[in-house]
Amino acid sequence: MAAHSVYSYLLLCNAITLLLVSPCCVGLGLDTVRDFLTREEDTIVFSLIERAKHPLNLPAYEEHAWFGPDGRRHNDSFAELFVRESEQIQAKAGRYQSQEEIPFFHSRVPFTLAPPYNFTTDLYPGAASVNVNDVIWGIYFNELLPLLAKNGDDGNYAVTAASDLACLQALSRRINYGRYVAEVKFRGDQQRYTALIGSKNKDALMKLLTSEAQEDVVKRRVEKKAMVLGQDITLDGPTETGDTNSGQSSFKVAPSVVYKLYDQWVIPLTKNVEVDYLLHRLD
């Protein structure tokens, strides 16, 4: 075999190998979605446990005046500034090149630091921008945080805001992943979904997307994870904490809070994302 032919043959073999092993060629599927959502449960529970280590630290959330590089006066809380500045750095490092990640504050900071990577684009372009980060932000600070943290002020505002950022990003990633859930469901039953999308029937779409039995499994599973991961572990095993009704105070995060988080916010918001995504799926 001529040298040129051998070289061409090796290139072809290499290309086939890349196609077989490349993640972007695996494609989006129901198993992929389920695995992602299950793993995110662990991330969310751990992030809540980390935030619960610190008291409320209310001064971190009180607005105060500051002057930007342009000399303009701004009124923001320390926590908001921390999230915005952190996202700017992460944007520069390429975090938001992946469609799974959505910043709370959009920035024009160029992506310049991380090595380039060809992320998959499984979402339909006309619907990919759907997200509920504004709603997540309000729920986290106004409703969830008072359930997580005890009253008090230890002055560790930077660490506290960093924990807030981890919680916000985990919740955003989990809830806005509803776009992927909707895409998988659409591909699995295009004819029925297309008809409902064409008629803009939100109620019918919501009903079609909903599985109360599966939602109940998820809520009970995250509650149990909060029980298991929220115990103090010794060499003799987990410290006795009691049941979820009588021993809430002995867990690092009350399992009932995690159950409520999924029941009242995570699952309903995810379904809202799914419906909004589908309504733009044929744009």
UniProtKB/TrEMBL annotation:
Q: Which GO terms describe its cellular component?
A: cytoplasm
Establish whether keyword Transit peptide is in the entry. Answer: no
Listed transmembrane segments: 6-30
Which reaction is catalysed here?
chorismate = prephenate
BP-aspect Gene Ontology terms: aromatic amino acid family biosynthetic process; chorismate metabolic process
Instruction: State which Enzyme Commission number(s) the record gives.
Output: 5.4.99.5
Q: Which keywords does the record carry?
A: Isomerase, Membrane, Transmembrane, Transmembrane helix
Q: What are the protein's GO molecular function terms? A: chorismate mutase activity
Q: Which domain of life is it from?
A: Eukaryota
What EC class is this?
isomerase
User: InterPro entries annotated for this entry?
Assistant: Chorismate_II_sf (IPR036263), Chorismate_mutase_AroQ_euk (IPR008238), CM_AroQ_sf_eucaryotic (IPR037039)
Q: What is this protein called?
A: chorismate mutase
